[in-house]
Amino acid sequence: MTNSWTSVRTSTRTNSVVGKARWTALVAAGAALVGVAVLGPTSAPASAAAPSWTRSAPVDGQIDIAALRTALAGLPEPSVRGAMVRISGRDGRWTGTAGEWTAPVDGPHAGEFAVGSVTKLFTGALVLQLVGEGRLSLDEPVQAHLPGLLPRSYAPITVGQLLSHTSGLQKPECVRPGSPVEVVRSAVSCGTPTAPGTTAQYNGINYFLAGLLVEKVSGLSYEAELRDRILRPLGLRHTRLPADDWAWAEGGLVSTSGDLTRFMNVLMRGGLHRPAERAALFTVPAIPDAQFSLGGLMRFPVPGGGPVVWGKTGTNHGYTSGVFATQGLGRVVVYSTLTTGKDSARETARVKGIVGAAFKGYRERVAAGA
Question: What is the pTM for the complete model shown?
Answer without folding.
Answer: 0.86
